[in-house]
Specification:
By secondary structure, the protein is α/β, with parallel strands linked by helices. The chain has two domains: about 1-30, no CATH class; about 35-200, Beta-carbonic Anhydrase, Chain A, CATH 3.40.1050.10. It has helices at about 5-20, 20-30, 50, 80-90, 105-110, 120-125, 130-140, 140-160, 165-170, and strands at about 35-40, 60-65, 95-100, 175-185, 190-195, 200. α7 (about 130-140) runs antiparallel to α8. The chain has nine helices and six strands; from the N terminus they run ααβαβαβαααααβββ. The protein starts with a helix and ends in a 10-residue tail after the last strand. Helix content is about 45%, strand content about 15%. Bound molecules: zinc ion. Zinc ion binds near residues 43, 100, 103 and 105.
């Protein structure tokens, strides 16, 4: 039986390879020089290349449940390895953490997960617990509560990024900027963290991306 995923994507792939031949051959010959790394959720609706308009070679990407970056030293090295590669070797200039509304990982964190049936999930999302605890203490409910945890988690994971020597050195050398984004699925809006206002604001061309 033919692989249905392969079969379904064949026409698209053929057209893409043909249309982008020049770019793809250049990338194969000269290597990759992305200027940004994007750490986003695995959610199928949060597509980094679509949100940023990136083409092959533009964006170094990690997608993981609830866009979590385990702090250095926790023994969870998958995301950290990608961060080190991006910052040390590829010398990316921008590092983006992108959360999103209606996040299943954040909902699991807030509503509880069965340790027996989903032990990996239960352990993983604990890396976002401080964000949930902070919001729970405020007594928020519903959408406001969810959004606040999503936003708090983005800021928490930005802090976790700084625990990596590669990141702290690059920041000290002024060759890296950290960015916090939240993609609102229902509103079709991208909000970014404005350090000056200490809150997430809607991006518009007259309100350009703030950085830290
Ligand atoms: Zn998610």
């Amino acid at each position: 039986m033919p692989d249905r995923v392969l079969a379904r994507s064949h026409a698209h792939r053929t057209e893409f390879f043909e249309n982008e031949r020049e770019l793809l051959e250049s990338l194969a010959g000269h290597g990759q020089f992305p200027d940004a790394m994007f750490i986003g959720c695995s959610d199928s609706r949060v597509v980094p290349e679509i949100l940023t308009g990136a083409r092959p070679g533009d964006l170094f990407v990690v997608r993981v449940v609830a866009n979590i970056v385990p702090p250095y030293g926790t023994g969870q090295n998958a995301v950290g390895a990608a961060v080190e590669f991006a910052v040390q070797r590829l010398r990316v200039e921008h590092l983006i953490i992108c959360g999103h509304t209606d996040c299943g990982g954040i909902k699991a964190l807030d509503n509880g997960v069965d340790m027996v049936t989903e032990p990996a999930t239960a352990n993983w999302i604990e890396f976002a617990r401080p964000a949930q605890s902070q919001v729970a203490a405020l007594g928020l409910t519903g959408d406001a509560r969810h959004r606040a945890i999503v936003e708090g988690n983005v800021l928490l994971q930005l802090d976790n990024l700084r625990t990596y020597a590669a990141v702290s050195h690059a920041l000290a050398e002024n060759r890296l900027e950290l960015h916090g984004w939240v993609y609102d699925l229902a509103e079709l809006q991208l909000r970014f963290y404005d350090a000056g206002q200490d809150r997430f604001v809607i991006f518009s061309p007259s309100n350009p991306q703030a950085s830290e």
